[in-house]
Structure formats: structure tokens, C-alpha cells
Write a structure and sequence with these properties.
The structure is a single chain. With 329 residues, this protein is an alpha/beta fold. Helix content is 39%, strand content 18%. The protein has 12 helices and 12 strands. Helix 8 links the parallel strand 8 and strand 9.
Amino acid sequence: MTLTRRSVLLAALPLLAPASPTRAQRPPRVARVGILSASVAPLSGERWPVHRIFVERLRDLGWIEGVNLQLEFRHGQGTAAGIAAAAAELVALQPDVLLGAGTPAIRALLTATRTVPIVMAGAGDPVATGLVASLARPGGNLTGVSLLGQEIVPKALELLRELLPKARRIDLVGSATNPSNDFFARTWADAVRAAGIEGQMVIVPRVEDIESMIAAIRADAVIVLPDPMYNPARARLLAVAAARRLPVANTQGRDYAAAGSLMSYSVNFDDLFRQAAVYVDRILRGANPAETPVEQPSRYELIINLKTARALGIDVPRALLLRADEVIE
């Protein structure tokens, strides 16, 4: 058969075609991913809903648990010592990628390793807290999705004041396990000053102190920051507040609102963990975390618990109800 120049070029075209940018590198035979949550492990032994969403998104991206993916879950049980120990245990397993949920877990992983790639699933402000050099160029072994706390906290205060226009003092509640406390304290001081009200940041030392700290607060309302310390004591915290008729808002998401918090303003945590899975996929396929920009959340949610509002005798403005993403009745 006689080959012309045209037939040779046509035959070569499939070899010259560019590979898909997201699938340019063949994935390893089995990838090991370590997931660190600072919170307690579910009592049922099952995974937290956001962890299941994370695994489902990885499956969509071609990483199937038990086939080409091995997952290692660890929980810090809501204490600084527990978080540090769980981080060290994960690093010792020599994973390909680590996932840290929340600033305490992320900071613990960074302390344990500066070489294994780490993906963040939510951090108050990774630049202000020193986790990354910048959002555009993180510069180390960490990248992922941030919470951008400098926007969440003032907005949560603004929304809560629409619910409680007569409030003259609102406090922000954080925990001693969160390395972002200094940043949040400065942000809060600026926010209450701009709002023309009083308020301070209250630090809860231990999970055992939650009830006594809430009982001692002399504010008209409080906003609770997201922190793994509160998860095992969430019901007790809200029960003490309800007994005092103290309105509680949070930046933790729907679970708190469903449990009785008056209002929640937060990122959509399902979206956050889906996007974190995309970052894990990128790194497993060769992306460098130092040069992979940190993304900001694309969606924030306002949830109002109308049942709690009625119990507290709070008349929720209709305009605010119409703006809410969800109203719990």
C-alpha cells in the first residue's frame, strides 16, 4: 500500500491530540487519603453526612473506595490533644493526600507534616491565620476551600440585629481549641463597633464548661462560632440558652438551626466538601498545592428557626423570612 504525506498525517492525529487536562495523568493504582475531623466520631459508627458527600463526589471523579481508593478517617474528639494525636496517626500512614475539616484540624495536620499535600475543607481565614501565604498562591503543602470568616461574622451580626433590633449587647462564643480566635476577636470588635452596640468574644475553655459559660453570659444574644467542641454538647448548650431565654445564632449550619438555634448564617457545608473532593482529585492527578489557588465559598445560607422565634417571643420580619434559604417551623 502506498502511503501519501496526507495519509501519514491523518494516521498520526490521534497520537497528537491533547489529553484532557483533568485526566492527563493516570491515577495511581490505589490512592490513600486521610481525613481528619476535629469533632467526635459518630456514635453509630457510620460517617458524618458531609463525609459521605465527600466520598460520593470522589466516586463521581473516578475514585472508588475499595477499588482505587483507600480512605482513613480519624476524629480528634473535640480536644486539642486528641486532634494532634489523630493528625500524627494519619501522617504516619503515609497518605497521598490529607483532608482537614476546620482550622483546628488543618493546623494540626500542618504541624504534623510540611510535605504531604493537605486539602482544607473550611478555615476561618487561611491568610489572616497564617495557614497560607495568599489565596492565589498558597505557597506550601496546603490548599482547598476557605470559610472567609471576616465576611461571615459581620453578616451574621447584621442579620441577628434585624431579628433583635433592641439588642444592646451581643457576644461571640468561641472555644479554646480554635487557633483562629485572635482573628475572630479582632473581627468581632470591629463589627460591634460599626453596629454601635456592645459585645465581646467569650472563650469556652473545655466542653465541660459550656453550660456554665452560657449561663454566665449577660448579653442579649450570642453568636456561636463553628467548632468541634460544641458538637457533642450542642443540645446542652441550646437547652441552657433556652432556659435563660437567650437567643442563639450560629455560623455552623443547618444542624444547629434544626436543634433549636434561632438563626444560622453559614456556608453550605455540602458544597464545601464536594469542592474539597475536587481538590483531592486534582492533587492525586499531579497538581501542586503550593500553586493551586484557594477557593472561596460560592454560597451562603440563611436559616431561621421560626419555632424557636415563637418560643422566645420574637417577631421575625417578613422581609427576613423572604430572604431566608430555609425556614424551620
